[in-house]
Specification:
This protein has no helices and 11 strands. With about 120 residues, the protein is mainly beta.
Protein backbone atom coordinates (compact mmCIF):
# COMPACT_ATOMS: atom_id res chain seq x y z
CA UNK A 1 0.00 0.00 0.00
CA UNK A 2 1.26 3.43 -0.95
CA UNK A 3 1.54 5.82 1.99
CA UNK A 4 1.93 9.57 1.54
CA UNK A 5 2.82 11.90 4.40
CA UNK A 6 2.55 15.66 3.87
CA UNK A 7 4.24 18.22 6.07
CA UNK A 8 5.15 21.89 6.10
CA UNK A 9 1.77 23.56 6.37
CA UNK A 10 0.99 26.28 8.85
CA UNK A 11 -0.03 29.88 9.39
CA UNK A 12 1.78 32.61 7.47
CA UNK A 13 1.18 36.28 6.70
CA UNK A 14 0.39 37.44 3.17
CA UNK A 15 3.60 37.78 1.19
CA UNK A 16 5.31 35.01 3.12
CA UNK A 17 6.59 31.60 2.04
CA UNK A 18 6.12 27.95 2.92
CA UNK A 19 7.57 24.72 1.58
CA UNK A 20 5.38 21.62 1.59
CA UNK A 21 6.85 18.12 1.49
CA UNK A 22 5.27 14.79 0.58
CA UNK A 23 7.22 11.63 1.41
CA UNK A 24 6.09 8.42 -0.29
CA UNK A 25 6.60 4.84 0.84
CA UNK A 26 5.55 1.57 -0.76
CA UNK A 27 5.93 3.16 -4.21
CA UNK A 28 8.14 2.92 -7.28
CA UNK A 29 8.30 6.67 -6.90
CA UNK A 30 10.54 7.61 -9.82
CA UNK A 31 8.07 6.40 -12.48
CA UNK A 32 5.00 8.16 -11.05
CA UNK A 33 3.46 11.49 -11.82
CA UNK A 34 3.12 13.44 -8.57
CA UNK A 35 1.00 16.45 -7.82
CA UNK A 36 -0.31 18.95 -5.32
CA UNK A 37 -4.01 19.77 -5.09
CA UNK A 38 -5.87 22.04 -2.71
CA UNK A 39 -9.38 22.36 -1.37
CA UNK A 40 -10.79 25.46 0.30
CA UNK A 41 -14.02 25.36 2.35
CA UNK A 42 -17.06 25.13 0.08
CA UNK A 43 -14.97 24.64 -3.06
CA UNK A 44 -13.95 21.72 -5.26
CA UNK A 45 -10.51 20.20 -5.00
CA UNK A 46 -8.32 21.78 -7.67
CA UNK A 47 -4.94 21.12 -9.23
CA UNK A 48 -2.13 23.37 -8.01
CA UNK A 49 0.83 21.75 -9.78
CA UNK A 50 2.06 18.39 -10.99
CA UNK A 51 5.32 16.89 -12.20
CA UNK A 52 5.82 13.83 -14.39
CA UNK A 53 8.45 11.13 -14.20
CA UNK A 54 10.26 13.09 -16.92
CA UNK A 55 10.24 16.27 -14.77
CA UNK A 56 7.68 18.08 -16.93
CA UNK A 57 5.71 20.53 -14.75
CA UNK A 58 2.24 22.00 -14.98
CA UNK A 59 0.75 24.81 -12.86
CA UNK A 60 -2.62 26.37 -12.26
CA UNK A 61 -2.76 29.89 -13.68
CA UNK A 62 -3.43 31.26 -10.20
CA UNK A 63 -0.03 30.12 -8.89
CA UNK A 64 2.25 30.54 -11.92
CA UNK A 65 5.32 32.56 -11.05
CA UNK A 66 4.77 32.11 -7.32
CA UNK A 67 4.86 28.33 -6.70
CA UNK A 68 7.41 25.74 -7.80
CA UNK A 69 7.00 21.96 -7.74
CA UNK A 70 10.08 19.76 -7.69
CA UNK A 71 10.97 16.19 -6.80
CA UNK A 72 13.90 14.32 -5.30
CA UNK A 73 13.64 10.71 -6.44
CA UNK A 74 16.50 9.62 -4.17
CA UNK A 75 14.36 10.68 -1.19
CA UNK A 76 10.98 9.61 -2.65
CA UNK A 77 9.78 13.13 -1.93
CA UNK A 78 7.93 15.82 -3.87
CA UNK A 79 7.94 19.44 -2.73
CA UNK A 80 5.87 22.56 -3.31
CA UNK A 81 7.70 25.84 -2.72
CA UNK A 82 5.11 28.58 -2.19
CA UNK A 83 6.22 32.21 -2.33
CA UNK A 84 4.29 35.49 -2.26
CA UNK A 85 1.39 33.79 -0.54
CA UNK A 86 -2.06 35.35 -0.72
CA UNK A 87 -5.13 34.87 1.50
CA UNK A 88 -6.85 33.09 -1.41
CA UNK A 89 -4.18 30.37 -1.19
CA UNK A 90 -5.72 29.28 2.13
CA UNK A 91 -6.76 25.62 1.79
CA UNK A 92 -5.95 22.07 2.73
CA UNK A 93 -3.17 20.92 0.41
CA UNK A 94 -3.10 17.29 -0.68
CA UNK A 95 -0.30 15.25 -2.22
CA UNK A 96 -1.37 13.07 -5.18
CA UNK A 97 0.48 9.94 -6.32
CA UNK A 98 0.06 8.48 -9.80
CA UNK A 99 -2.63 8.91 -12.44
CA UNK A 100 -6.37 8.29 -12.39
CA UNK A 101 -8.25 6.04 -11.87
CA UNK A 102 -5.84 4.57 -9.31
CA UNK A 103 -4.56 7.85 -7.91
CA UNK A 104 -3.63 7.88 -4.23
CA UNK A 105 -3.92 10.79 -1.81
CA UNK A 106 -2.16 11.98 1.29
CA UNK A 107 -3.96 13.09 4.42
CA UNK A 108 -3.61 16.80 3.69
CA UNK A 109 -1.87 19.69 5.40
CA UNK A 110 -3.51 23.01 6.28
CA UNK A 111 -2.14 26.24 4.83
CA UNK A 112 -3.61 29.46 6.23
CA UNK A 113 -2.57 32.87 4.90
CA UNK A 114 -3.60 35.92 6.91
CA UNK A 115 -4.03 39.42 5.49
Amino acid sequence: QVQLVESGGGLVQAGGSLRLSCAASGSIFSIRTMGWYRQAPGKQRELVADITSGFTTNYADSVKGRFTIFRDNAKNTVYLQMNSLKPEDTAVYYCAHGLPPRRRWGQGTQVTVSS
